[in-house]
Amino acid sequence: MRLVLVLMWLLHWLPLPLLGRLGEAAGSLLFKLLKSRRHITLTNLRLCLPHLSEEERLAIAKRHFQVYARSVLERSILWWGSERRLKKLIHIDPAVPMQQIQSGPTILLCPHFVSLDVAGVAVMLESTLCSIYTEQSNKVFDRALRKGRSRFRPVKLFSRAEGVKPIIRAMRENTPFFMLPDMDFGSKDAEFIPFFGIPAATLTATARIAATTGAKVIPVIATILPNYQGWKVAFHPPWENYPGDDMTAATRFMNTYIETEILKVPAEYFWSHRRFKTRPPGEPGVY
Fold first, then answer.
1. Does a structural domain hold residue 177?
2. I want to staple 250 with a disulfide (CB 3.0 to 4.6 A). Which of 65, 124, 142, 207 is the partner?
3. H-helix or E-strand containing 223?
4. What does the alpha-carbon distance between residue 216 and residue 189 come to, in Å, rounded to a whole number?
């Protein structure tokens, strides 16, 4: 792993157009080699985008592997690139909403697009944050990941096992919660909410934490700019009257919002994750 990290450190010196093309070439190769991940990706696309032809879904899947591999290599810039270079490459639209963040508890809702780490860096160039972190099995990589994600500002990283109490305490100290809301973590603390019409185990934590803290929810979407110009990080307006009294309805609203954003750049969503691995009682697996 140390050799891998040395290689990534060397890669960060490359111009983004070259690094991006290397990542896309690696992704094209991985699409051919990683049969199980290719199967998961195509299964997700068939379930979620049935209106497309098989050829269109195949093109999205191939492009997904390219941009995902590219995002892994480009992480080297996020971890070791200078602040000046990052500010040049990260185009923030319209700006990090510091006034809203400082006005009270805030959830920065960041769905799993491949460039989500860019969104985290965009925030940390301006503000500290807290988030949930899964410890990596390799200790060397775990240290590098933690250091890379917290080199500009102190970051409070909590394990999922700690629950929501430390997150709520941090939020009440005006530390924004950088939340990744759209992965399948099983049925605990989740409900089966439609995601592109398919029941998906979805954590209701966004709605519950917002209700408990009175937090505003600001969606953050990170995407790739064309022609290897860098990345765009869009901070959307806070959701109005969220979550209301119905946590299930609020979670359904969240999924619908994420669907809308996915359809804008479908290849950049994290389709290689088994989003539907947890099934409602009595329903067969899809993978």
1. yes
2. 207
3. strand 216-224
4. 21
